C-alpha cells in the first residue's frame, strides 16, 4: 500500500484557486436560482467523484468479480464475506478501481485498517 500524496503549500494555493474559480462559475451560471446552484454543485461533485472512483455500476461489477476471485473470503482475515456490507478497498488510492489494485474486505477488517491509517 502506498501513502496518499500530500499537496505542498504552492499546490494547496493552486487547488484553492481552482475551487474558488469553480464556485464563481457556478454562482455566475446559477444567478439567484438556489435550486440551480444546488443542482450544478451536485453535478460537478458527482463528475469529479467519478473521475476518481469510477461509476458505481463499474465498481459493483468489479467487486463481484473480486469476491469470486477471493473465493468469497475477506482478503485480510480470510473469513467468509457476508452477503452485504463489504468494502472494495484500493491498494493504492491514487490509482483507479481496477483489477490488481483492489480487494474486498469485511467491514471489521476495513475499519481496523482505516483506524491504523488514522482515517477512522
Task: Give structural notes.
With 120 residues, this protein is mainly α. The protein has helices at 9-30, 34-53, 56-69, 107-116; strands at residues 86-90, 102-106. It has a two-stranded antiparallel ribbon with strand order 1-2. The longest helix is centred in the first third of the chain and has 22 residues, at 9-30. The protein is elongated and about 55 Å long. The two termini are 17 Å apart. The model has no long low-confidence stretch (mean pLDDT 93).
Please write out the topology:
Layout: H1 9-30, H2 34-53, H3 56-69, E1 86-90, E2 102-106, H4 107-116
Antiparallel strand pairs: 1-2
Helix pairs in contact: 1-2
Which structural traits does this protein have?
elongated, 55% helix, His-Me finger endonuclease fold, mainly alpha, 120 residues, 8% strand
Q: How many helices?
A: 4
- What CATH first level of the largest domain would be assigned? Alpha Beta
End-to-end span in angstroms? 17 Å
- Percent range of helical residues: 55-70%
Task: Write down the secondary-structure element order.
Answer: HHHEEH
The low-pLDDT segments are none
CATH superfamily of the largest domain: His-Me finger endonucleases
Number of domains: 2
Name the CATH architecture of the largest domain: 3-Layer(aba) Sandwich
Main sheet attributes: strand count, strand direction, barrel closure: 2 strands, antiparallel
Shape: elongated
What's the short version?
This protein has 120 residues and is mainly alpha-helical. The model has no long low-confidence stretch (mean pLDDT 93).
Amino acid at each position: 500500500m502506498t501513502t496518499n500524496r500530500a499537496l505542498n503549500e504552492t499546490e494547496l494555493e493552486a487547488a484553492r484557486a481552482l475551487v474558488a474559480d469553480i464556485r464563481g462559475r457556478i454562482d455566475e451560471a446559477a444567478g439567484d436560482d438556489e435550486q440551480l446552484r444546488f443542482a450544478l454543485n451536485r453535478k460537478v461533485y458527482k463528475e469529479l467523484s467519478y473521475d476518481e472512483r469510477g461509476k458505481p455500476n463499474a465498481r459493483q461489477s468489479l467487486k463481484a468479480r473480486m469476491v469470486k476471485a477471493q473465493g468469497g473470503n475477506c482478503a485480510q482475515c480470510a473469513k467468509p464475506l457476508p452477503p452485504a456490507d463489504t468494502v472494495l478497498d484500493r491498494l493504492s488510492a491514487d490509482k483507479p478501481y481496477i483489477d490488481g489494485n483492489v480487494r474486498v474486505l469485511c467491514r471489521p477488517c476495513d475499519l481496523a485498517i482505516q483506524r491504523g491509517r488514522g482515517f477512522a
